[in-house]
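The methods section describes the discrete structure representation at length, but only in general terms. Each protein is reduced to its one-letter sequence and a matching series of backbone shape codes. I believe one specimen quoted in the main text would settle the matter. An entry of this sort, consisting of the sequence and the corresponding backbone structure tokens, reads as follows.
***
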Amino acid sequence: MKIQETLNSGKLRIIAVLTLTAALLAIPLIAMQFSNEVKWTLTDFATAGALLLSTGLAIELVIRNLKTGTLRTVILVVILLALFLIWAELAVGIFGTPLAGS
């Protein structure tokens, strides 16, 4: 019974990752309908979707394999920090790498 509960919670978390990714991508899509200041292309949506989905799945992998402890927390913080730094670089080019179009 314990194994079945674990599998079900894992499936629910993956569904949550997919739902949250779609919901976050819907924000600029809806904003584009009401404002000319938001101009995302298909590439922008694909990049953001890949970044959000890979982050969510990496977090799910850590949650499944490391049950508790400081190491789990540190790895989760590193994953989120990487998400924010990559997102900022793609958005405004804080480091000036070619990823930002600099």
The longest helix spans residues 2-34. The radius of gyration is 17 Å. The chain has one domain: 2-100. Helices lie at 2-34, 42-65, 70-92.
